[in-house]
Amino acid sequence: MIRPVEKSDESVYIALAKEFYSSDAVLHNIDERYICRAFREITRPSPYAEGFLFFDGDEVAGYGLIAKTFSQEHGGPLVWIDEVYVRAPYRGKGLGKEFFEYIFERYKDSAFRLETEKDNERARKLYGQLGFEELGYLQMVRKNKSNF
């Protein structure tokens, strides 16, 4: 089951995000304040971001975050699939695929983008099966230090 993150999910969401940022799936850990900011954003009516929890029965198995924007390149709405994390005991049960199908249906008039580590073969295989294609872009970032 997939459902939106609710305010009562704060401790479980923060625990999941900390697990994700301590994993090999990311290049570096992040400040817990950023996780808390994201939680506040996804639990209010936000035009920018949404968060979802994944369940295996009654057990919390992971989470996903999306960011929403408009893309001239894609000719309309774009959903950036920012984070997808499934706890190790629940991997291989189709939860990641279920999340993507949920998001594709929820935003059927949108294009979708995501990123992954080059050596994350399992994720790249799933994303390819779901119709994602690799782009030739090099991603860059500049942070406004006064906001962090």
Q: What is the topology?
A:
Elements: E1 2-4, H1 10-21, H2 32-42, E2 49-56, E3 59-71, E4 76-86, H3 95-106, E5 111-114, H4 121-129
What tags apply to this protein structure?
148 residues, alpha+beta, five-stranded mixed beta sheet
Could you characterize what this model shows?
The chain is an alpha+beta fold. Helix content is 30%, strand content 26%. The protein is built from four helices and five strands.
Could you give a quick summary of the protein structure above?
The chain has helices at 10-21, 32-42, 95-106, 121-129; strands at 2-4, 49-56, 59-71, 76-86, 111-114. The protein is an alpha+beta fold.
Biggest β-sheet: strands ordered side by side in the sheet: 1-2-3-4-5
Shape verdict: globular
Give the amount of beta strand, in percent.
Answer: 25-35%
- Assembly state (oligomeric): single chain
